[in-house]
Each structure stands twice: as structure tokens, then as C-alpha cells.
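tool_call: predict_structure(chain=1)
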Amino acid sequence: MFKKLLLILAASMLISSLFSATISGLVVNKSNGQPIEYVNVIIKESQVGSVTNHKGYFVITGLKPGQYTVLITAIGFSSINTTVTINKDSDDAYSKFEIEKKSLEGTTIKVVSQYEDEIVNTPDIKVSNYTRSTEQLQDMVSLGEADVIRSIITLPGVAPISDFSSGMYVRGGSPDQNLILIDDIDVYNPNHFGGIFSTFNTDAVDNVELLKGGFPAKYGERLSSVLNVRNRDGNRKKFEGIGRLSLISSSVTMEGPWHLGENNGSVMGSFRRSYMDLLQGLIDGIPDYYFYDGHLKANYDLDINNRLSVSTYFGRDQLKMDIGPEMTISWGNRTFTSQWVHIFNPQFFSHFIIAGSTFDSKISMKTDAAEDQVTTMDRINSIDDITFKSIMSYKPNNEHNLEFGFENKINGIKFEFKSSEDYDPEKTPKVNTTCSTTSLYIQDTWDFDSFWSIQPGVRMTSNNGLKSNLPASKKANYYRASPRLSIRRILDVDSNVYFSYGRYYQYLTLVSPGMSTPFDLWFPLDKSVKPGESDHYILGYKRSIMEGLGIDIEAYYKTYNNLVEYRPETDFEWNNSTGQLKDIFNMGKGNTKGIDFLLRTDLQGLSGFVGYTYGITQRKIENYNTNPDSGEPEYFYPKYDRTHTMNIVESFNYTQYSSRQFLGADLKFGLTYSLASGQPDPLPEKIYFDGNNYQFLYSYSDSKRLPYYSRLDVNVKLQFNNAGYSIEPYIQIINMLNRKNVWSRNYTVKTNNNTGDFVLDHEDSTQFPLMPFIGVDIKF
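tool_result:
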């Protein structure tokens, strides 16, 4: 019976596609020719619509001969109406549509508005989806300069572990459970300076999309979320650039068109470097450290049906310290992506990708044990990635949008510890492994009436070990099916409710000290450890209250199985001949539940959001958080768990609000305020004296909570506009209230002067103090 229904459905889709015309096209930014995603395209006469994909392409089918009015709307852009004529049933009308940034005109002032009231009932089902543009990223208050990941961790459901880390903990998941992509290739350690700065330069980024859960079938191999970063194509109309100078770093970004005969395209290049190493000799306490990164992208528009692009990212950090031994730490990422977009026909869109990525780190230590003897130690780690993807979509009619594709990924992972001292080679870890992950997916978005939409999908994955130098580690051989399902009910023109379920698997594990650092080690699975597994359940409500004001509410529940937690004993027990992956980890399970609330604002020059999350995350790991009486592990709250989190992220454009300037410049204010309940922390349960020092025994990792977290960041910007360029000086103040937020708590034993009794005392290490920053941006 089920097979007959599938055959009937497929036949009806094919017949409807053979006897109807289509309107398709590419929607681009009028100022620079760059394609725009998530643009809503509606036929006014029938209210049938579509939405552009990530390459700016759309198609509307099922049209009869006649004249149609096409309405195109997008957040932050002025809407346009255009007329398209269909002469016969077999016509395929293709057009390129240019839309421009929405602006407000004063008597002598032209201010570009970044936002517009969001269209809630989009043709596709958006679950836990947030997209932020370059302009939104730049308006946020960040440490010294705009930061991609630090802007994301202000969203409800996302949290950092501290000021010193930009690792994302999304709805109870750890950073290694996030799939982070730049131009469709994985980035395995997207942090500078151990997490204080993220890898990506915002000037090179077109937009950032976060999927906090329930992500569709084209994404997989991670348990928690997807962060999709897309580089700018480059301006196809004119050359332009921007330079930035701050107390931390400087950067320059250039972009423009190229022409060779009838061939056209665009290029973009961006480079950034910090210079703390240059100040190290002038100011005490500044580390001998620097980082640099660069983005390059080139596009070639062959014709209306074919577009090629190549892009690369490269970045490097180097830190030197004298801590007794001389230590040098070097780490960095390199990526390369080549893409071909081909339109077989208006209803059949394809996107082919060949890409590669590498993260490597090296820690070197040199100790002068004597004048004639030098001891050296090197710790070397790398992960390589070669990926081929095909992403297809077929739209036979306006009720169905079929997406399907293929992905093959080969990972090579190396880890080695070298020392000039006499070590047992079997006790010194040495890993050289290769694995392959192959996936097929298919998904259909079916609008079966004016109110209901359903989006079923499945991802089939095969993970296999190809090579390993560890004789006891049997090669992985796993096959998994990941079903996905989303259902939406439109309530009225401005609101909808939806439910989503998805199962997710992960085939790479991470050895991490608890926050994203260059010390992190990726390992592929072997037969001794099963793939991580998570089920996502999401119930959401989305509403546009009025123009410039809307709310998103999502309740979620996630389960985890086959979680791994690093065993510190591995450092003493490891043996290359007998070691398996299960010797490195303790296994366990967990769950997360909560609710996210987001109030979107775009009123009278005020743009941003207010977000709140109530969430509870618990894990249960063998040999961890053990009850001293029963000897059994108990559920615990991990270090990153925060029950309550609130973020206020707003920018106020005074010039847009009042049509007045300040000192001849546009005046903008920015504010970011974070308030969160305290994180779990262990409390000593027993104390004993070993003859020299007091030693503390801990049984539970979450015996108490640290004090609540509170931080206010503000900025002020002036934008002086001149013919062909603008100058934007700014000042930022981080932690304006100088709140002493606790990072860690260390316990000591002291004697009570009055009674002579021993008492338990503690000292707190705090996070960022009050810090001012100044800088200037120049756009030309």
C-alpha cells in the first residue's frame, strides 16, 4: 500500500511538472550584484510563492499563460513589483531581479536601514534558525572588534563557558557537537587565542546562519547545531574596500568586479593581523603572541545556468612563553572550496562542491637541564578533511520541493608526542588513522493546503575506518539512518506553530580540557566506541506582533546516548600496542530540556533583540560524579549549565530616529547586557593533611553554584560620510559596571584566629575587568 501511494505521488508530481510554465530567477543586491538568500517571491494574483536558496535562486511552477505581478520582499531591502508574461504552457520565464537596501531620507541625510519586519510565514519551514548579516555583526559590541561567534553566543539557547572562550554550548551540547562550516567545508577549531577571538573576519563574511537544533537532512554528523558561515562573493558592480584599526588588530578588505571579454565575475580579499607581539617589549604583562587570518574568493559567471567559484581561508596563531621551560605554541586552520552551480532546467537546481580543510597544532618545550644539556618535547596534532558534496533540489510544482544529495568525507588524523628524554615508545602516544564517512539524504517540503506543511526526510550514513597504526584498535564499520520530520500549521497571516523531530549521529570525538583550545584532539571512532546519538524534539511558535516587533518561542527536549568524557588516567595507562578508543573515555548519557524566548525589535531606530532561556542539562558518565556511598555514578549538571540566561542586544541609530546628525556625522549607540545564573562547581567534601599540604577530596562535580554572571558592554560610533568614502571612529567599553564575574574558585584551609579551628576558605579568579577600546573604520 505504501509503495502504491509513493508511485501515485511521484506520478502526480511528474505530470504537473510537464504541463505548466515556470517563473524562475536570480535575486541580487542592486548595489553590488551579490545573490541574496531567503528572499520571498510571491505571485500577487494567486498568492503562490517561493523563497530564494543560498545562491539567490528561486522557481515558481504551475502557471498558465497570462500576465503576472511578481512581489519580491527581503529583510532590510525595499520591496519591488515587476510584471512577467507567460505566453504558453511550456514557457519558462527567467529574470534577474535587483533589489536595493531600504533607506530613510532626511533633508540632507540618507541612512541605510538594516532591518525590516520579518515575514513569518515563509514558504519553507524554519526550525531554530537564525541568520545574521554583516551589518548586524558589525553593530554588536564585541571585544575590540566585531566577532562572528561572539555575536552568535548572545542568542537564546547558546552560551559560552566564560569570557575567555568563544566555544559555543548550544542547548546543552558541547563545542565539538557543533558543525561549523565556511563556504560548505568544516572548520575544526574556529578560535584565535584559545577562544577569546573567533577565526572569521566579519568584513569577509556575507552572513552567518545558526541552526540550533532540528536541522534538515542535508546536514549531519554532529549532535547539537550547525553554524554556516558564507564568505562574500565580492562586488560585481564596482571596487570598494574597508580598513579597520583598533588597539588589538588591523584589517583591510577589498572587493570588485573583473571582466575578460564577455566573461564576468568578482573577487574579494580580506586580511587581518593582531600586533600584541609588537607591544610585548613596551608594556609589561602583554604576551608574546600574534595571529593573522585571510579570506579570498573569486567568482566566474559563465552564463545564466552556470557559475563557478573558488574560496580559501587561512589563519595562524603563535604564542611564546617562558614558564621555566621555553614554550612555543603554534596552531591554525586552512580551507579551500571549489563550487559549481548548475541549473539543469528551471525546476532542477544543482550545486557541486570539492573542498578541503586542515587544522594543525604544535606545542614545543625546551628546558636547559644543564649548561651542556637541552631537553626538548614536541606535541604534534592535525586533522585533514577532503570532501565532495552534491546538493540538489527539484521543484515539480508549488506544493513540493524535493532536496537530495550526496556527501563523501575522508578524515586523516595524526597525533604524536616526541621527547629527547628516554621514554618508553609504547607509552608515548602515536596515532595515525584515516576514516571515511559517506552520506545520502533526501527531503521533501510538502505544502498540502493553505495552512499545513510537512517536511519529511532521512539521512543515510556509512562510517568506515580505512587505516590505523594501533593494532588493537579495530576499524569502525557503522551504518546509521537519521530520520527527520517537521510539521507547520499557519495560524494567520502573521503567525504559525510548528513541531520538529530529528535523530543525529556523530562519528568523531574530541579530547578537550573543557574549553576550545589548540590542545583539543580529534579522534575517529573505532569498534570499541559507538557513535554519539541524539534525538531532538522541538515545539515552536512564531509571530509578528506589529511592524518592527515579533516573537519566537521554542520549547525543546534532547536526549544523548554514547556520550564520551575524557579519562585523565589515560596519561599513565596508555599503550600503543594495546590501546583502543574506549581506554581514553568514560561513556554515558544525558538530556537537555528548556525554552527559548526571543523578542525581535526594529522600532524608531532601535534594532536588535531581547532573549531569554530557561534550560537544564544533565549528564550521567561512568566513573564520574560517583556517589561515595553506593559507588554508582549519578546525574550531574555540567560546567556550562546555566538555568537562566538573558541577553539584551540593541543598537540605536540616533540619526535614523531624529534625522539629525552630531558634529556632522551619523550617531549610533550599541548595548549588550548579559545576565545568567551561576555555573555548577565542585565543593570539597573531605580534607586531609599529607604532611606538607592540605588535600581536598571531591565526590560531586556540581555541589554548588558560582555567583550569577552580569556584564554590560556599550559602544558609541560616529560615521562621517564624504564623497566616495566614510570614516567611522568608535569607542567601546567592555564590562562597563566592572562586575567581578567568577571564572574559577580555589579552596584553601585557614585557621580561625578566635577559636583556632580550621575553616575552609576560597579565592576566586575573575573574568574580564572593565576595558575600554578605541578604533576607527574607513570605508571606500
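agent: The helical segments are 2-18, 134-139, 148-152, 276-279, 570-573, 654-658. Proceeding to next step.
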